[in-house]
């Protein structure tokens, strides 16, 4: 047995913070009992929030009860229910509804390939699947599986409804691995297992109702499930973001705007977030929880600089099969190893370190970690049932046993260092990858005679890169590597090698094992060669002639640690992945001084394509248009026009919280992209934007709104649409003022100057970020935006509004500057009718947190008074006529 250091869970963690401790007897109660208690005492508090919606505890409880009532009627005890949902507010609702119905659930990852889903469904054999409309197409054709489409929050169950019984030690949750060993493996946990993880999280971090958690773990992982339950059973709030495709900038915005107090992320993702920072994290973020991969002391150093001095860093070491250890990182425990220790053993577990013969090793010696505990997973889910985990006697305890495969060493102070893996499994960005599985996938190609997979660890940041070596079956090997790369697109991303080598023979030792040194030498030689070779094709020496290519090439080398050798180089084939893509985009944003889409590299992964896109005068996708919130294509979108600075950062928090089902499309200003000239003519800008709107939506009705200066353009666009005979259903102006001719010039200039100064101060913050080398090309971030803002002010002064034959909805902030004229007095002479709606905050804060949610609700209410509401009610009524309004139920034959 390991030496017991008997340290409390919160050692070196939070102090003097009130919270409701979950004690051992609480593990005998059901999860839904705990949640019902939270829902009753926190009815009006926000329980869960995503980019588009927030649910209070009362709303979530009502939805859980309503969906559970449907599940009880449609399934039988012992049935398994599939949850095919992304990280959104509907996921906790579905998960809790399954438990309230007394049914176990299996989470189906929406990001994995269809082959993975097919294997999981074959083994899991769910009776029913909960999904969103746009995610269920892949499972509709499966015979015998019904799909319930969750299109909203279900209505509450009847008054006499009570949750169904599900035993504390019965299967409650099935989570499948990535399938890196050849086939996904389903791990079964009970309610007691899940509650023990929740209790340890709450009791260690002292989580209470004032906390707001942001988890960047996938819902199909034990971390994703644990974090949701932890927040909801503590009466806290959980914010969900999809870990795939979310940008570091968006994560930072959520942390600041939502005043997040606890953040969970994998080490590699944290590196991207911290690297993209424009300022410190803020005082609200009191705890960063990190796990799933190796954490370095250099990561801790970066986090310490980013976080407030009193914030804590908690390292968590666990597996889907069992929780094992955690600790609040103490810098005084730093040793010679660059890796942070994995922690102290958790109470309730019996941990042993054994040698190859299965005998316990002495403290300080390396061995495999075994965990014996009643909280080890129940077993594996195979062919629609749970195959129980084997039990074993470890020391004086007989419990379920989990062999971790990790090689560890216990230090004199009781902390454990993770030395490596006993077998060939490695963790890449939090996913367990078996190198034998990677080799098997490559050998399945008919042209491959032999294959080897090798995981290299970067000395710079500890990141693991997968490298592949293959031998062809015959001499005609042309195109073999490209065919192999295409074939491997069907396996999860962590299993796809970053670099491939075609060799005559795989280097092996006399024992037939791989010659790791020889494999490493082949890869090292190529990396050295690429760094030494000139790259004239990709990086012109004359920066003035092609500054974009220079910036891209240097960011490429900084993030991937290899140079771009030519225009056809592919980011992902040179070692890039989704996390490195975030860092790369952040580097480009910092150098170019403008916002870029997090999906930029998905659209243009090749060097030349990327440079060409960045040289274009228009932004990706729809030029001036950017989707701020996706929505139903059958409904007209709401077009939201930028403020004086030209970008969409100011309007994004409110736009994403608008809850009517149509999309929200943002309109950017010209002039933010190098090569563009900002316009000083409001009429020309309106005509330009109208052309983009018409391309997106050729016919009406049109729904328009604009913030500040954008309101003038909104008004002019609406006027031009009306003149040309188009239907305009809604025109919203957010604190939009007129030119100086309408009120005292001095007051207008003072207000405009103050707002522009504050805007400039906000935009200047990124200039303090580090630079990696003196030769790096720097374009000052604020300049394009300040030019756009100055041009907008000039255009505003020259604009003379005409008359709009319709209604204007004016949104005015409660905290207006002294001496400002009312919006109604400004606009009532320019429209048939005006409506005034007061929003919280001031001009510069009315659309941002903490006012964004209230402002979005007021905007939604205004929209729903018109045609959108009537059309939406009609579609909802049609669903109700089929027998189930929300959610809707679709059979396998649909």
CATH class of the largest domain equals Alpha Beta
How many separate domains make up the residues? 4
Based on secondary structure, the structural category is: alpha/beta
Strand order of the largest sheet: 2-1-10-9-11-12-13-14-15
**Rg from Cα:** 29 Å
Mean pLDDT reading: 81
The proportion of residues in beta strands is 15-25%
- Count of individual beta strands: 35
Q: From the coordinates shown, what is the CATH architecture of the largest domain? A: 3-Layer(aba) Sandwich
Shape: globular
Instruction: Please report the distance between the alpha carbons of the first and last residues.
Output: 56 Å
CATH superfamily of the largest domain: ANL, N-terminal domain
Structure description:
There is one protein chain. With 894 residues, the protein is α/β, with parallel strands linked by helices. The chain folds into four domains: 27-345, Rossmann fold, CATH 3.40.50; 425-532, GMP Synthetase, Chain A, domain 3; 547-615, ACP-like (Non-ribosomal Peptide Synthetase Peptidyl Carrier Protein, Chain A), CATH 1.10.1200; 625-874, Alpha/Beta hydrolase fold, catalytic domain (Rossmann fold, 3-Layer(aba) Sandwich), CATH 3.40.50.1820. Helices cover 32% and strands 22% of the residues. The strands form six sheets. The chain has a nine-stranded mixed beta sheet with strand order 2-1-10-9-11-12-13-14-15, with helices on both faces. Helix 17 links the parallel strand 29 and strand 30. Helix 5 packs across helix 6 and helix 20 packs antiparallel against helix 21 (782-798). Residues 534-544, 617-622, 759-782 and 869-894 have low confidence and may be disordered.
């Amino acid at each position: 047995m390991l030496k017991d250091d008997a340290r409390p869970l919160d050692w070196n963690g939070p102090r003097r913070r009130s919270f409701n401790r979950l004690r051992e007897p609480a593990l005998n109660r059901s999860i839904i009992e705990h949640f019902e208690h939270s829902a009753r005492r926190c009815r009006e508090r926000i329980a869960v929030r995503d980019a588009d919606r927030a649910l209070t505890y009362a709303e979530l409880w009502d939805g859980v009860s309503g969906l559970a009532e449907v599940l009880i009627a449609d399934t039988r005890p012992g049935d398994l229910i599939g949850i095919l949902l992304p990280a959104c507010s509907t996921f906790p609702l579905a998960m809790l509804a399954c438990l309230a119905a007394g049914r176990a659930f299996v989470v189906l990852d929406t990001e994995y390939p269809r082959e993975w889903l097919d294997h999981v469904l074959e083994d899991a054999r769910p009776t029913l699947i909960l999904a969103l409309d746009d995610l269920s197409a892949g499972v509709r054709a499966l015979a015998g599986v019904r799909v319930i489409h969750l299109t909203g929050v279900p209505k509450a169950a009847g008054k006499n409804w009570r949750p169904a019984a599900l035993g504390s030690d019965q299967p409650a949750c099935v989570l499948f691995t990535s399938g890196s060993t050849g086939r996904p493996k389903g791990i079964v946990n009970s309610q007691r297992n899940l509650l023990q993880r929740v209790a340890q999280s709450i009791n260690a971090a002292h989580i209470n109702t004032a906390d707001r958690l942001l988890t960047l773990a996938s819902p199909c992982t034990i971390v994703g499930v644990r974090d949701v339950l932890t927040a909801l059973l503590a009466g806290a709030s959980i914010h969900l973001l999809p870990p795939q495709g979310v940008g570091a900038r968006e994560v930072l915005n959520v942390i600041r705007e939502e005043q997040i107090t606890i953040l969970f992320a994998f080490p590699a993702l944290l590196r991207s977030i911290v690297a993209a920072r424009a300022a410190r994290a803020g005082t609200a973020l009191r705890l960063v929880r990190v796990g799933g991969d190796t954490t370095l002391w250099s990561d801790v150093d970066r986090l310490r600089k980013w976080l407030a001095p009193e914030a804590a860093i908690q390292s968590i070491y666990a597996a889907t099969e069992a929780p094992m250890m955690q600790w609040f990182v103490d810098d005084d425990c730093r040793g010679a190893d660059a890796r942070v220790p994995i922690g102290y053993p958790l109470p309730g577990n019996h941990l042993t370190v054994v040698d190859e013969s299965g005998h316990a090793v002495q403290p300080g010696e390396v061995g495999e970690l075994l965990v014996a505990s009643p909280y080890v997973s129940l077993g594996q889910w195979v062919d629609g049932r749970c195959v129980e985990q084997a039990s074993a006697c470890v020391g004086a305890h007989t419990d379920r046993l989990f062999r971790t495969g990790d090689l560890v060493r216990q230090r004199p102070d009781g902390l454990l260092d993770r030395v490596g893996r006993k077998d060939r499994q490695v963790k890449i960005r939090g996913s367990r990858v078996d190198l034998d599985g990677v080799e098997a996938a490559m050998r399945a190609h008919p042209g491959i005679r032999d294959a080897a997979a090798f995981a290299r660890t970067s000395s710079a940041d500890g990141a693991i890169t997968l490298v592949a070596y293959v031998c062809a079956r015959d001499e005609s090997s042309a195109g073999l590597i490209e065919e192999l790369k295409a074939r491997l697109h069907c396996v999860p991303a962590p299993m796809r090698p970053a670099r491939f080598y075609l060799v005559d023979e795989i280097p092996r030792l006399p024992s037939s094992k791989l010659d790791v040194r020889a494999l490493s030498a082949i890869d090292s030689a190529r990396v050295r060669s690429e760094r030494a070779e000139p790259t004239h094709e990709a990086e012109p020496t004359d920066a003035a002639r092609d500054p974009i290519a220079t910036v891209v090439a240097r960011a490429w080398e900084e993030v991937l640690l290899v140079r771009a050798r030519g225009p056809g180089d592919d980011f992902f084939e040179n070692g890039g992945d989704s996390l490195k893509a975030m860092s790369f985009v952040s580097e480009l944003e910092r150098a170019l001084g403008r916002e870029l889409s997090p999906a930029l590299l998905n659209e243009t992964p090749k060097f030349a394509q990327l440079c060409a896109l960045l040289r274009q005068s228009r932004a990706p996708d729809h030029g001036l248009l950017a989707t701020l919130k996706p929505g139903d294509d059958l409904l007209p979108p709401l077009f939201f026009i930028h403020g004086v600075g030209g970008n969409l950062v100011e309007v994004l928090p409110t736009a994403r919280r608008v809850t009517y089902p149509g999309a929200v499309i943002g309109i950017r200003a010209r002039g933010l992209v190098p090569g563009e000239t900002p316009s000083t003519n409001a009429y020309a800008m309106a005509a330009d934007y109208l052309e983009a709107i018409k391309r997106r939506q050729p016919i009406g009705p049109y729904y328009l709104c604009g913030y500040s200066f954008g309101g003038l353009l909104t008004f002019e666009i609406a006027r031009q649409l009306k003149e040309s005979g188009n239907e305009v259903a809604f025109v919203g102006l957010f604190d939009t003022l007129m030119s100086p001719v309408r009120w005292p010039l001095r007051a207008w200039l003072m207000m405009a100057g103050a707002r522009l100064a504050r805007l400039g101060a906000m935009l200047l913050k990124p200039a303090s970020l580090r630079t990696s080398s003196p030769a790096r090309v720097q374009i000052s971030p604020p300049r394009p935006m300040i030019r756009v803002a100055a041009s907008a002010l000039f255009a505003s002064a020259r604009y003379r509004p005409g008359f709009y034959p319709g209604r204007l909805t004016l949104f005015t902030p409660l905290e207006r500057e002294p001496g400002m004229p009312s919006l109604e007095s400004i606009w009532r002479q320019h429209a048939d009718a005006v409506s005034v709606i007061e929003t919280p905050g001031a001009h510069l804060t009315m659309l941002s947190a903490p006012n964004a949610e209230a402002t979005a609700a007021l905007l939604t209410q205004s929209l729903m008074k018109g045609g959108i509401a009537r059309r939406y009610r009609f579609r909802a009524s049609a669903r109700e006529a089929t027998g189930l309004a929300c959610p809707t139920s679709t059979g396998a034959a649909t």
